[in-house]
Structures are given as structure tokens and as C-alpha cells.
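Chapter review: from sequence to fold.
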Amino acid sequence: MGLQITVNLNGKPVTDFIDPDTTLYQFLREHYCYSVKCGCDTSNCGLCTVLFDGRPILSCSCLAARADGHEVYTLEGLQEEAKEFIGFIAEQGAEQCGFCNPGYVVNIIALLRENPDPTDEEIKEYLAGNLCRCSGYEGQLRGIRNFLNSRKG
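The C-alpha cell string follows.
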């Protein structure tokens, strides 16, 4: 039977019964949010990053019960906001393979909501928890910087 929770998931209320030890990551995957991945089981890689009441969190280290009554957004629910950035990054040749990209994009959305004109150091700090095995991060940083510069005019 478990606990009944209701989460505002990507703008829609989702009610379900969960076991008390269900992580938010597990809950999201069970509700077709496949952009959320788990690559480390130690809360170190950032692949499971989601927005919880507008703030980025690691869903693998958050119990789903904690999300009861709260708003959670995954990349599935942020497509419109992410579209311009993702397209720009791809044109810059700074995209990733796709495995860690959703957590990275969710963190960039959170960063730009909080600080629309970050310095390179602030970008690096914000993305410090997003591990990527495909890049040296310089292409990503360059792509983000070029995106920000393009928005300025």
C-alpha cells in the first residue's frame, strides 16, 4: 500500500502510492521522465538533476515523500525553455552525447533563472556537480558564453 503522495510534476498533478524508501529519481522514472538518469548511485554525477520548487537538486538522494505537495520539473517539462539553448549549443559544436546532457541543461536553466549574466567562474561553480566523460568542459563553457553573448545583442 505505502504512502500516497501528490507531486506537481512538469505542471501536472501526479498522485501515486509509494514505498517509504522510494527515491524521487525512482518515482520520476516510473512516471515516464526518462531524461532523469542515475550514473553513480553516490550523488556525484548530476545526471539526476531536476528542479524542485525551482531549485536544482539531485533526485537520487531525495526521497519521493519529500516531494509531496511540491513542484518538480524534469527536462520533459522544460522543453520550451531549453529549446533555444540546446539548439545554440548544438550549432556551436558544444553538445554532449546525450547521457548527461539533461542534468546539465536543467542546471543551466536554473543558473540562468538565478543569474542571467554569470561570469565564467560562476558558470563553472554552478556546473561543478555535472560530470561528463565526453568533454573537457571547455566546449560547454565556450558554448554557454557564446549563448549569453548572443542574447545581449
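Two observations follow directly from the output. The first helix runs from residue 24 to 30. Helices lie at 24-30, 79-91, 101-114, 120-126, 138-152.
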